[in-house]
Amino acid sequence: MEFRDNKAIYLQIAEYVCEHILLEKWKVDEKVPSVRELAVELEVNPNTVMRTYDLLQNRNIINNKRGVGFFVSDEALANVKSYRKTQFMDEELPVVFRNVYLLNIGFDELETRYNSFVKETFNP
């Protein structure tokens, strides 16, 4: 995983976990990698992964079954969508809107590009 400098690593790892849940690579009630396993995989400190897991636990995306490990919660998909949507609307969309305005890009062109992206990426 390539980390960006403009965002805390634990938040980028949270995005990574959320994306795995959204893409259903990690399913409801399925065990997620242990703190150590994910730390080794991503080449980060286990404390960083633990901070990520604490955040996701507080958002009811994963839960800890004591002595067994962390699992994707029953409400994970809805909670991930809500968390990511809020994050996108507050942080990323204003940047997109600024560029759309500055570059004078019409909504019809955006719609065409969006539809092509969805078709190529999710329905190859």
UniProtKB/TrEMBL annotation:
Keyword Transcription regulation: yes
GO molecular function: DNA binding; DNA-binding transcription factor activity
Highest taxon of the lineage: Bacteria
KW Protease (keyword) present: no
SMART domains: HTH_GNTR
UniProt keywords, alphabetically: DNA-binding, Transcription, Transcription regulation
Residue ranges annotated for the HTH gntR-type domain, each copy included: 7-75
Pfam families (UniProt xref): GntR
Protein name: Regulatory protein, gntR family
Lineage: Bacteria, Pseudomonadati, Bacteroidota, Sphingobacteriia, Sphingobacteriales
